[in-house]
Amino acid sequence: MSIPTPSPQPNPTPTARPTPTPPRTRRTRLLPAAAFLALASIASPLAPPSLALENVYLTEVPDYAWHVGCYGTALGNLIGYWDRHGLPDLYTGPTNGGEAPLFSFRNNRGILSLWSSEAGLDGRPENLPGHYDDYYVEYEYAGPDPYESAGRPEHSPDCIGDFIGLNQRKWQDLAGECRGNIDGYAFNFFDREGRRRDNFEPTDPAGIPIPDVQSGLRAFSAFRGYAADTFSQLADFNPDAPGPNGFTFEQLRAEIDAGYPVVLCMQAFGVFTRDFPDAPRVNPLIHAMLAYGYVIDDDGQGYVRYRTSWASGDNQLSPWNDSNWTPDQAIRLPLRGVIGFHPRPRITAIQPKSGGLEIRWHGPRSILRNEAADLETHPHRYVVEQSSNPASATWEQITEPTTDASAVIPECCEGHRFFRVRLLGPSDP
What we know:
This protein is an alpha+beta fold. The protein has seven helices and 20 strands. Strands 1, 4, 5, 6, 9, 10, 11, 12, 15 and 16 form a ten-stranded antiparallel β-sheet that branches. The chain has a three-stranded antiparallel β-sheet with strand order 13-14-19, with no helix packed on it. It starts with about 30 loop residues before the first helix and ends in a 6-residue tail after the last strand.
């Protein structure tokens, strides 16, 4: 059985790299060579296996082109995905009518503000500096941040890059690995023993928080009005993690099957820093991508389907092993570890309806496509629960499970009642 390529999304892949428009004459955007390559039509790093027992992926995943950092772009794809799938307040700018688009070319360029706000971009006033203005000069620039050179205060955090520390040259010790972050880079505090870290908050020796990718994702989500949980873990084949710990292919399958894309963190094993002539111990070469599907061939080999952060299209796969996952690109890096992001539901309205109450909410609403079975499913299900005391450990379920984002409670309610929406897990009935 041949593997069908996912149904093409309306993301035109240009045959030649478009010339970016410089924002101002004071400096020009410079992308790494890998980002230039990706804006042209690129073949998959590995030809997909000819036969497949399973070919499963999440639908309508954005495929944005690299902009001021791979982590910013990968997380732009992630947050853009969730803006399109149940959490519409994650992006509310003017681009594409306020819904995160599927691609970032031409009229959709304003979506870049999702991870790198900028004066004059996406409705921002020309005289109001943003992330790009305060932190970015050119790819791998290791000097002072522009706001420091200009002698002005930095802007208040308002985009993904601000919250994850992207491009911010502020920290002298990132987990004992490097100093950062140079332009185009961010950092994540992995547990070096390979254990999973849930909702981790890194700090310096004085207890002052240091933003990283995992904690920054959670902080940005809260800034946009949504609670979320995050985790990070080294891959199970990473030789830097001793013992049996590590994130497995089966766990990646479980995340995708449950409706959650996964951030892929690419970095050479055992390489934690680099020395520049004028800047010792800076960030090592890294890359970040977004996993949104998997394939298992007839020999049982598992492959990961991902967005490259280079607008490379749908048919990008790599086997789950310690090889280089981007061998046809200008960088050659294996998977170091993963970062997961699970947004929680939020009630948005409670109003009378038909003698009862209607409760509405925002929450994850993925669509999972199984090509082999020619089947689409909705993995996220919800129930409404009530209690007379919000601090109670006991809540009563009052609706049947639903994949909708609303429910009507008939003949409600006597006395005071508190309601909550609970997202069911994959094993819940």
